Fold this protein.
Amino acid sequence: MLRWQPTLLDSQQPGGWAVVHCKQHFLADSNGVLFPREWLKKQDLPIIAEHGLGHFDGDAVYLLELSQPFDMPGCAWQSLRQFMLQGDADTFKLLSYATQIGTWASQHRFCGSCGGSMQHMPGERAMHCVRCELHHYPRLSPSMIVLVTRGDEVLLARSPRFVSGVYSTLAGFVEAGESVEHCVAREVREEVGVEIKNLQYLGSQGWPFPHSLMLGFHAEYASGDIVMQVDEIEDAQWFSVHDLPPLPASRSIARYLIDVYVARRLGQPEPVLPG
Protein backbone atom coordinates (compact mmCIF):
# COMPACT_ATOMS: atom_id res chain seq x y z
CA MET A 1 0.00 0.00 0.00
CA LEU A 2 1.25 3.46 -0.88
CA ARG A 3 1.74 5.60 2.22
CA TRP A 4 1.00 8.83 0.32
CA GLN A 5 -1.99 9.01 -2.02
CA PRO A 6 -3.02 12.44 -3.38
CA THR A 7 -6.73 13.02 -3.81
CA LEU A 8 -9.21 15.89 -3.69
CA LEU A 9 -10.62 16.39 -0.19
CA ASP A 10 -13.38 18.75 0.88
CA SER A 11 -11.80 21.37 3.14
CA GLN A 12 -15.24 22.01 4.68
CA GLN A 13 -15.08 18.63 6.38
CA PRO A 14 -13.68 18.64 9.94
CA GLY A 15 -10.80 16.64 11.35
CA GLY A 16 -7.68 15.15 9.84
CA TRP A 17 -4.07 16.24 9.88
CA ALA A 18 -2.52 19.33 8.33
CA VAL A 19 0.82 20.58 7.08
CA VAL A 20 1.65 24.27 7.40
CA HIS A 21 3.44 25.82 4.42
CA CYS A 22 4.93 29.21 3.60
CA LYS A 23 7.39 29.97 0.79
CA GLN A 24 8.69 26.41 0.34
CA HIS A 25 9.13 25.92 4.09
CA PHE A 26 7.12 23.70 6.42
CA LEU A 27 6.42 23.94 10.13
CA ALA A 28 7.77 20.94 12.05
CA ASP A 29 8.16 19.78 15.63
CA SER A 30 9.77 16.73 17.25
CA ASN A 31 6.97 14.53 15.85
CA GLY A 32 7.31 15.71 12.26
CA VAL A 33 5.25 17.91 9.94
CA LEU A 34 1.74 16.61 10.57
CA PHE A 35 -0.34 18.50 13.14
CA PRO A 36 -3.96 18.01 14.30
CA ARG A 37 -5.83 20.21 11.85
CA GLU A 38 -8.54 21.51 14.19
CA TRP A 39 -5.92 22.43 16.81
CA LEU A 40 -3.92 24.38 14.23
CA LYS A 41 -6.96 26.36 13.13
CA LYS A 42 -7.37 27.63 16.71
CA GLN A 43 -3.84 29.10 16.78
CA ASP A 44 -4.60 32.40 15.03
CA LEU A 45 -2.36 31.53 12.07
CA PRO A 46 -2.26 33.95 9.09
CA ILE A 47 -3.99 31.41 6.80
CA ILE A 48 -4.66 32.57 3.23
CA ALA A 49 -5.78 29.22 1.77
CA GLU A 50 -6.74 25.72 2.83
CA HIS A 51 -6.69 22.69 0.53
CA GLY A 52 -7.39 19.01 1.01
CA LEU A 53 -4.32 17.12 -0.25
CA GLY A 54 -4.93 13.39 0.12
CA HIS A 55 -4.20 10.53 2.50
CA PHE A 56 -1.00 9.65 4.36
CA ASP A 57 -1.00 6.25 6.06
CA GLY A 58 -4.76 6.24 5.49
CA ASP A 59 -5.40 9.56 7.29
CA ALA A 60 -6.75 12.70 5.62
CA VAL A 61 -4.15 15.45 5.19
CA TYR A 62 -4.83 19.12 4.48
CA LEU A 63 -2.66 22.10 3.62
CA LEU A 64 -2.72 25.40 5.49
CA GLU A 65 -1.01 28.06 3.38
CA LEU A 66 0.23 31.07 5.35
CA SER A 67 0.86 34.62 4.20
CA GLN A 68 4.01 34.78 6.33
CA PRO A 69 5.95 32.51 8.71
CA PHE A 70 4.45 32.19 12.18
CA ASP A 71 6.50 31.32 15.26
CA MET A 72 5.11 28.58 17.50
CA PRO A 73 6.73 27.25 20.69
CA GLY A 74 8.53 23.96 20.15
CA CYS A 75 8.34 24.26 16.36
CA ALA A 76 10.73 25.34 13.62
CA TRP A 77 10.50 26.05 9.90
CA GLN A 78 12.36 23.65 7.60
CA SER A 79 12.92 24.07 3.88
CA LEU A 80 11.66 21.57 1.34
CA ARG A 81 15.26 20.95 0.27
CA GLN A 82 16.10 19.89 3.83
CA PHE A 83 13.38 17.25 3.65
CA MET A 84 14.66 16.11 0.27
CA LEU A 85 18.14 15.59 1.69
CA GLN A 86 17.26 14.30 5.16
CA GLY A 87 13.63 13.17 5.37
CA ASP A 88 12.02 9.90 4.37
CA ALA A 89 10.92 9.47 0.76
CA ASP A 90 7.17 9.24 1.42
CA THR A 91 7.09 12.39 3.51
CA PHE A 92 9.03 14.21 0.80
CA LYS A 93 6.43 13.11 -1.79
CA LEU A 94 3.66 14.53 0.39
CA LEU A 95 5.52 17.80 0.95
CA SER A 96 6.46 18.10 -2.73
CA TYR A 97 2.79 17.96 -3.65
CA ALA A 98 1.85 20.31 -0.81
CA THR A 99 4.37 22.98 -1.78
CA GLN A 100 3.18 23.00 -5.40
CA ILE A 101 -0.45 23.36 -4.34
CA GLY A 102 0.51 25.97 -1.75
CA THR A 103 2.55 28.02 -4.21
CA TRP A 104 -0.28 27.88 -6.73
CA ALA A 105 -2.85 28.90 -4.09
CA SER A 106 -0.80 31.85 -2.83
CA GLN A 107 -0.12 33.12 -6.36
CA HIS A 108 -3.72 32.83 -7.57
CA ARG A 109 -5.70 34.59 -4.88
CA PHE A 110 -6.70 37.17 -7.48
CA CYS A 111 -7.50 36.84 -11.16
CA GLY A 112 -4.66 37.74 -13.51
CA SER A 113 -7.16 38.93 -16.12
CA CYS A 114 -9.57 41.20 -14.24
CA GLY A 115 -8.18 41.38 -10.70
CA GLY A 116 -11.24 39.75 -9.15
CA SER A 117 -11.10 37.44 -6.16
CA MET A 118 -10.53 33.76 -6.93
CA GLN A 119 -12.52 30.98 -5.28
CA HIS A 120 -12.12 27.20 -5.08
CA MET A 121 -14.13 25.23 -7.61
CA PRO A 122 -16.08 22.51 -5.74
CA GLY A 123 -15.06 19.00 -6.72
CA GLU A 124 -12.06 20.12 -8.78
CA ARG A 125 -8.48 21.21 -8.16
CA ALA A 126 -9.01 24.63 -9.69
CA MET A 127 -9.58 28.30 -8.85
CA HIS A 128 -12.48 30.21 -10.38
CA CYS A 129 -12.93 33.94 -10.93
CA VAL A 130 -16.53 34.85 -10.15
CA ARG A 131 -16.21 38.10 -12.10
CA CYS A 132 -14.86 36.98 -15.49
CA GLU A 133 -15.31 33.17 -15.23
CA LEU A 134 -11.61 32.46 -15.79
CA HIS A 135 -10.32 29.15 -14.40
CA HIS A 136 -6.81 28.53 -13.06
CA TYR A 137 -5.34 25.07 -12.50
CA PRO A 138 -2.10 24.16 -10.67
CA ARG A 139 0.83 25.19 -12.83
CA LEU A 140 3.21 22.62 -14.24
CA SER A 141 6.32 23.69 -16.15
CA PRO A 142 7.78 21.02 -18.48
CA SER A 143 11.55 20.96 -18.62
CA MET A 144 14.26 18.66 -19.85
CA ILE A 145 17.36 17.36 -18.12
CA VAL A 146 20.09 15.53 -20.02
CA LEU A 147 23.37 13.74 -19.46
CA VAL A 148 25.67 14.11 -22.49
CA THR A 149 28.00 11.12 -22.84
CA ARG A 150 31.15 10.26 -24.79
CA GLY A 151 32.28 6.71 -24.14
CA ASP A 152 33.61 6.58 -20.58
CA GLU A 153 33.18 10.33 -20.19
CA VAL A 154 30.19 12.45 -19.17
CA LEU A 155 29.72 16.18 -19.67
CA LEU A 156 28.89 17.87 -16.36
CA ALA A 157 28.52 21.54 -15.56
CA ARG A 158 27.91 23.81 -12.64
CA SER A 159 25.83 26.94 -12.26
CA PRO A 160 26.82 29.86 -10.01
CA ARG A 161 23.75 28.90 -7.93
CA PHE A 162 25.05 25.39 -7.11
CA VAL A 163 26.53 24.27 -3.83
CA SER A 164 30.28 24.81 -4.00
CA GLY A 165 32.08 22.07 -5.92
CA VAL A 166 28.96 20.23 -7.14
CA TYR A 167 28.58 19.41 -10.85
CA SER A 168 25.39 18.23 -12.51
CA THR A 169 23.67 17.51 -15.80
CA LEU A 170 22.28 20.17 -18.15
CA ALA A 171 18.67 21.29 -17.88
CA GLY A 172 16.24 23.87 -19.21
CA PHE A 173 12.59 24.74 -19.75
CA VAL A 174 10.62 23.80 -22.85
CA GLU A 175 9.63 26.91 -24.77
CA ALA A 176 6.26 27.57 -26.41
CA GLY A 177 5.81 25.64 -29.65
CA GLU A 178 8.85 23.47 -29.01
CA SER A 179 9.11 19.69 -28.65
CA VAL A 180 11.07 18.28 -25.72
CA GLU A 181 13.55 16.75 -28.18
CA HIS A 182 14.21 20.13 -29.78
CA CYS A 183 14.53 21.66 -26.32
CA VAL A 184 17.27 19.19 -25.36
CA ALA A 185 19.35 19.97 -28.44
CA ARG A 186 18.82 23.74 -28.08
CA GLU A 187 19.66 23.89 -24.37
CA VAL A 188 22.82 21.81 -24.77
CA ARG A 189 23.92 24.02 -27.67
CA GLU A 190 23.16 27.23 -25.72
CA GLU A 191 24.72 26.17 -22.43
CA VAL A 192 27.89 24.37 -23.54
CA GLY A 193 28.12 24.82 -27.33
CA VAL A 194 28.14 21.14 -28.40
CA GLU A 195 25.88 19.11 -30.68
CA ILE A 196 24.27 15.83 -29.63
CA LYS A 197 22.81 12.69 -31.23
CA ASN A 198 20.99 9.45 -30.31
CA LEU A 199 18.69 10.92 -27.68
CA GLN A 200 17.30 8.35 -25.22
CA TYR A 201 14.44 9.02 -22.79
CA LEU A 202 14.95 7.50 -19.32
CA GLY A 203 12.13 8.81 -17.15
CA SER A 204 10.52 11.79 -15.46
CA GLN A 205 10.31 13.33 -12.01
CA GLY A 206 8.16 16.03 -10.50
CA TRP A 207 10.51 18.74 -9.24
CA PRO A 208 8.75 21.08 -6.79
CA PHE A 209 11.17 24.02 -7.02
CA PRO A 210 8.66 25.37 -7.57
CA HIS A 211 6.58 23.43 -10.15
CA SER A 212 8.66 21.64 -12.80
CA LEU A 213 8.14 18.29 -14.49
CA MET A 214 11.63 17.07 -15.38
CA LEU A 215 11.92 14.80 -18.45
CA GLY A 216 15.23 12.96 -18.28
CA PHE A 217 17.45 11.91 -21.21
CA HIS A 218 20.81 10.52 -22.18
CA ALA A 219 22.38 11.93 -25.34
CA GLU A 220 25.61 11.07 -27.12
CA TYR A 221 28.14 13.74 -27.99
CA ALA A 222 28.23 14.49 -31.74
CA SER A 223 30.56 17.45 -32.28
CA GLY A 224 31.88 20.77 -31.00
CA ASP A 225 34.06 22.17 -28.26
CA ILE A 226 32.77 23.32 -24.89
CA VAL A 227 31.81 27.00 -24.94
CA MET A 228 30.09 27.99 -21.70
CA GLN A 229 27.03 30.25 -21.69
CA VAL A 230 27.83 33.51 -19.92
CA ASP A 231 25.96 34.02 -16.60
CA GLU A 232 24.41 30.53 -16.78
CA ILE A 233 27.36 28.13 -16.67
CA GLU A 234 30.27 28.69 -14.30
CA ASP A 235 32.24 25.64 -15.43
CA ALA A 236 31.73 22.61 -17.69
CA GLN A 237 34.04 19.65 -18.19
CA TRP A 238 34.27 16.09 -19.42
CA PHE A 239 34.66 13.73 -16.45
CA SER A 240 35.64 10.07 -16.48
CA VAL A 241 33.07 7.70 -14.98
CA HIS A 242 35.96 6.47 -12.84
CA ASP A 243 36.68 9.93 -11.40
CA LEU A 244 33.55 12.01 -10.86
CA PRO A 245 33.22 15.29 -8.93
CA PRO A 246 30.70 15.88 -6.12
CA LEU A 247 27.24 15.16 -7.56
CA PRO A 248 23.60 16.21 -6.93
CA ALA A 249 21.40 14.74 -4.19
CA SER A 250 20.65 11.04 -4.55
CA ARG A 251 16.87 11.61 -4.82
CA SER A 252 17.19 13.87 -7.85
CA ILE A 253 16.67 12.76 -11.43
CA ALA A 254 20.00 14.45 -12.26
CA ARG A 255 21.81 11.99 -10.00
CA TYR A 256 19.75 9.12 -11.41
CA LEU A 257 20.82 9.93 -14.99
CA ILE A 258 24.46 9.93 -13.93
CA ASP A 259 24.22 6.77 -11.81
CA VAL A 260 22.45 4.81 -14.56
CA TYR A 261 25.13 5.64 -17.11
CA VAL A 262 27.96 4.82 -14.72
CA ALA A 263 26.30 1.51 -13.82
CA ARG A 264 25.96 0.58 -17.49
CA ARG A 265 29.58 1.41 -18.29
CA LEU A 266 30.87 -0.51 -15.28
CA GLY A 267 28.50 -3.46 -15.60
CA GLN A 268 26.79 -2.78 -12.28
CA PRO A 269 23.09 -3.07 -11.30
CA GLU A 270 21.10 -0.03 -12.41
CA PRO A 271 19.48 2.22 -9.78
CA VAL A 272 15.75 2.92 -9.58
CA LEU A 273 14.43 6.41 -10.30
CA PRO A 274 13.31 7.93 -6.97
CA GLY A 275 9.68 8.92 -6.57
About this structure: The domain at 4-107 is CATH 3.90.79 (Nucleoside Triphosphate Pyrophosphohydrolase). The two ends are 15 Å apart (CA to CA). The CA atoms of residues 53 and 62 lie 5 Å apart.
